[in-house]
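User: We ran a pulldown and think these components assemble together. Before we commit to crystallization trials, I'd like a predicted model of the whole complex to look at. Sequences follow.
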Amino acid sequence: MVTTTNTTTTATSEPARPIPYGSQRIAIDRKAVAQLPDTPVVFDCENVEVYYGAFRAVRGVTLKIQANQITAFIGPSGCGKTTVLRSLNRMHDVIPGARVAGHVRYRGIDLYAPEVSATEVRRRIGMVFQKPNPFPKSIYDNIAFGPRVNGTRNKADLDVIVEKSLRSAALWDEVKDRLKSSALGMSGGQQQRLCIARTVAVEPEVVLMDEPCSALDPIATARIEELMRELKSRFTIVIVTHNMQQAARVSDRTAFFTTELDSKSDRRTGTLVEFDATSKIFSAPSDERTENYITGRFG
Amino acid sequence: MTATAQLDLRARPSWRTTKNKLMLGLMGVAVVLVAIPLIAVLSSVVQRGAAIAFKGFPDFFTATIPVVSRRPGPGMGPAILGTLLVTGGATLIAVPLGILGAIYLHEYGISSKFARLVRFMSTVMTGVPSVVMGLFVYLTWTLSFGYSAFGGALALACLMLPVVIGSTEQMLRLVPSQLREAAYALGTTKSRTILTVVLPAALPGIVSGSLLAIARAAGETAPLLFAVGAATAYNPHLFSEANTALSVQIFGNANSSFPAAQERAWAAALTLVLLTFIVTLIARIFTARLALKR
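Assistant: Here's a predicted model for the assembly, 593 residues in total across the polymer chains.
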């Protein structure tokens, strides 16, 4: 289902259709820009920097992510897309030596304030990873894991949550007869949808997706993109992708990151170049580096 | 032969293929060499022990040990019970402690100074000879509280602990970090992640490592000589009175000049092998069941 109000790409009924790029621009419906609804700001990042030990991996990220929209992070390898994404739900906490500077405000609260609990943050801001990572448990237990952690013990309640979550991930019909079998026996695309269902099951407010389709074939990718458009009405979605067509197809706003030489350390560091409506980024980017990247002249 | 060159997809004879065959042959020889001692030990234990052990079954496994060792006839019952008590006690001490220690080292301490010290001391402890461990328990426990199965359990636990810590830490290391991240991303606390995701994923390996430690400990003799004593009657008490164990009985009887005692030693050796085998089997079935349930 393609939602009509936010279609930013050429009105296409086949989301998986490859859009050739190179010297050619990806055609954009200019009118769609004006139609982007001005929803409340969910994330307000102000001059975010992420360090791994002494190494500054990303610098100068200032952007606002709005509710019920899909925001895409694009850019070449090593530009810090994933690093910034992980800073949005404090996933860096588990990496020894990683540190976030600047401010990441989530609905007005600084996520890195000392009194903020990373566990509470992650309960509200879920994440889907690049590689499908189901637990070595049954399909049912995978979905029920989060609700159980959050205190749902009642079997009937869990049954309802499992069915609802699998339905929202368009997986219910495929697995309803084998809920008790191991999740590891599923195909890669199914596993990734299971991971999305598992994330949705805890009713987060935001879903962060780190290249969720990079290990999947075009058909599975199309299904997941369709899913994102459906989930947008309930969640705020931030997606990191290497695939520019994907960003153009699914996202409302796009942030373009690139690498540059860090004057402080003489090493390459990532930085945010441009953040705007997806239609603007792919049709009339204001920065030359963005234009070079999306037209395939670089990266 | 036709005019066009015949397609030949067979491997061409070369140094590489020869080397491959040579190495495969060497591997085969190595497998046989490894199997020889295993089969030789098992067959001689079965050959010499089976006749006595299974004569008038289950007498040998239930009767008490003859007080006068030159007399023929069964009995290793008290030694079987003693081995179960001593090894069981050691397992109850060393396995939980070892697993908790490994969890600390791998999930919390990681490369802190204290964790590095503990890891180093644990490695050193692996190299301490079992006699020394027996002597240690003799001085610290037996001299004050007398012979008991518990003293033996303490000594064996000291021997098992570093093995359990080492193997468990290794297994925790094998749990992919993606699984931990998946749990964290659902708002799971660290302790809960360890309990519900990391430990279940590492369980089969932890069980294998612990079993190896248990099997090794069950055959230990030296520390038990110091701490357990040598009884010939049943002693079901863990904390009081001298007890005995299969390994101690094997040692004592095999040293004897009387054929009847030597035969009993062989039968006791077979019993120990069977016991270890059964315990391993039960634990394997148990973990297989758990794995299926997941």
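Chain B touches chain A at residues 110-111, 176, 178-189, 192, 196-197, 200-201, 294 (CB under 8 Å). That may be worth checking against your pulldown data before setting up trials.

User: Thanks, that helps.
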